[in-house]
Design goal:
CATH topology of the largest domain: Methylamine Dehydrogenase, Chain H
Strand content: over 45%
CATH architecture of the largest domain: 7 Propeller
Number of helices: 0
Number of strands: 38
CATH class of the largest domain: Mainly Beta
Number of domains: 2
Length: 432
């Protein structure tokens, strides 16, 4: 087994009582019963829905002050899911069609749409889309446990069969952490999830701790250990894991969130949100252990929620079947405990490992000039990721990581630091 030891600063996340606020962010006209929303910038988002034979797409680039109706030429049916990468690049998937369902792509803000994926006969509609920043993979989920992956912005697709009988349900059930770790909910009579931890090589079916006909919402921390899940009928009880889904326990989040819900996890932080169709929204700042209600401006029938993170601020948007949109600004305030270095570095840096060559262990040092999410990974010469040494939010300071390649063969390896907008890769040599 790969072994590594990480030395870092002890961090406690706290959020002040006044750090977050939900405000109205405009309205859309007759969106349909289950509008889906995707945030692609601080002030930019797409909404997709409609009814049978009447698809609808809306877009804002000014924080909801105006929602523009996006042309849908070439799209025939109701849209069930949407994922926008930026103002111009977006994807939408058809729902509730007989036979084939199509996935569409635009590269010019909806002026034109191109069919990029068809489920095939009797495979049902698309229920979820997700995009990973790591390698830029795009994932799509169809109702018959058909998981598709594209590594080139939807131009080509590979089908990743989940290998179970029964159908997935709810647009909210597709969960993506990275290219290896993803899953979705099942609705064949029990509260279960279908999960892969090795990029679809193998799948596991996991029974969560709450009851319900289907698991409607799943979210995991980027460390792949903490996770939460819920069904449409389990609230106020949700299910929580601290070991990557191997075991689950029930958590009472309290009153105020009902109906089919949606869960989102702010990457590399202990912050999780839950949204209910009644308009209730709660937030946890301790990896799903305790939950606090966040005030909303009287909007009900919420169907979907999405967010983006910029530095220490989370920007979120939620949409209702009534056409109401609300917007979140949530400032994450972080207090540091034990600090290994009181002097804040003047810049980001990644140092050469020492010793180099090494056998079997080496030290990797890096510095952060500001608080940011950090990922430190090791790759072989073929570009395959062989270890993730750090994947969490870090405060500014200097850090040291010890890496052991006991299970690796002699050869050249690369380690890469992603810290905010800073990216650097260095080479190291292991000799046995």
């Amino acid at each position: 087994m790969m072994k590594f030891l990480i030395f870092s600063i002890l961090i406690t996340f706290t959020l002040s009582a006044n750090s977050q606020s939900w405000v109205p962010a405009g309205n859309i006209t007759n969106p349909g019963t289950r509008p889906s929303i995707s945030v692609c910038g601080i002030n930019s988002a797409y909404i997709a829905d409609g009814s049978l034979n009447s698809p609808k797409v809306f877009r804002t680039s000014n924080g909801g002050m105006n929602w523009l109706t996006v042309p849908v030429s070439g799209i025939a049916n109701e849209l069930y899911c949407v994922w926008a990468i930026n103002d111009n690049l977006a994807f939408v998937g058809e729902g509730y069609v007989n036979g084939n369902a199509n996935l569409y792509k635009t590269t010019n803000a909806g002026v034109n749409w191109t069919t990029i994926l068809t489920t095939g006969s009797n495979n049902g509609h698309f229920t979820g889309l997700a995009f990973t920043k790591l390698n830029g993979n795009l994932f799509a989920l169809a109702i018959a446990e058909k998981v598709y992956r594209s590594s080139n912005s939807g131009n080509n697709w590979v089908e990743l069969s989940a290998g179970v009988t029964g159908v997935s349900n709810a647009q909210n059930s597709l969960m993506i952490v990275d290219n290896d770790f993803y899953g979705f909910g099942l609705n064949n009579g029990a509260a279960r999830i279908r999960l892969t931890t090795n990029n679809s090589t193998t799948w596991s079916t996991q029974q969560i701790s709450v009851s319900g006909n289907y698991t409607s919402a799943i979210a995991f921390h980027s460390n792949k250990l903490y996770g939460v899940a819920a069904t449409s009928t389990s609230l106020p009880m949700i299910s929580r894991t601290t070991d990557g889904g191997l075991s689950w326990s029930s958590v009472d989040i309290g009153s105020g969130v009902t109906g089919t819900c949606y869960l989102v996890w702010v990457p590399a932080t202990p912050v999780v949100y839950i949204l209910g169709e009644n308009g209730g929204i709660k937030r946890s700042t301790d990896n799903g252990t305790t939950w606090v209600t966040t005030p909303t401006p009287g909007v009900t029938n919420l169907t979907h929620f999405d967010f983006m993170q910029s530095g220490m601020i989370v920007y979120g948007y939620a949409v209702s079947s009534n056409g109401n949109v609300i917007k979140l600004t949530d400032t994450l305030n972080i207090l540091t405990g034990i600090n290994s270095n009181n002097n804040v570095p003047v810049s980001f840096s990644l140092e050469q490992n020492y010793p180099n060559p090494f056998n079997p262990s080496t030290l990797i040092k890096y510095s952060l000039s500001e608080n940011t999410s950090v990922r430190l990974s090791v790759y072989d010469v073929l570009g395959r990721e062989v270890a993730v040494l750090v994947n969490e939010f870090k405060t500014s300071g200097s850090y040291e990581v010890s890496f052991s390649g006991d299970d690796l063969s002699t050869g050249v390896y690369y380690y890469r630091l992603d810290a905010g907008t800073f990216v650097e890769t260095k080479k190291m040599l292991m000799i046995k």
